[in-house]
């Protein structure tokens, strides 16, 4: 599942704010057995926050 998430109500429907999130699940015998996710900040401030708190921005490609 690919989601666009905003932390503030005033940023809803603004594609230049918030985060892109990808969630992937592994299902076996109708049970969720594993979960992976990847989160990417969209705006400069979110990317800077991620970098300053230990995240790494490995490319300049923008949104994945």
Model description:
By secondary structure, this protein is mainly beta. 14% of the residues lie in helices and 39% in strands. A three-stranded antiparallel β-sheet has the order 1-2-3. A hairpin with a 2-residue loop joins strand 2 (19-28) and strand 3. The longest helix has 9 residues, at 44-52. The mean pLDDT is 83.
Would you summarize the structure shown here?
The chain is mostly beta strands. The chain is built from 1 helix and 3 strands.
Question: How are the elements arranged and paired?
Answer:
Blueprint lengths: L1 E4 L13 E10 L2 E11 L2 H9 L12
Antiparallel strand pairs: 1-2, 2-3
- H/E series: EEEH
Question: What is the gyration radius calculated from CA atoms?
Answer: 14 Å
Strand order of the largest sheet: 1-2-3
Q: Strand-residue fraction?
A: 35-45%
Distance between the termini: 13 Å
Shape field? extended
Number of helical runs?
Answer: 1
| Largest pleated sheet | 3 strands, antiparallel
Number of β-strand runs: 3
Q: Overall mean pLDDT score?
A: 83
Which features characterize this protein?
three-stranded antiparallel β-sheet, 64 residues, mainly beta, 14% helix, 1 helix
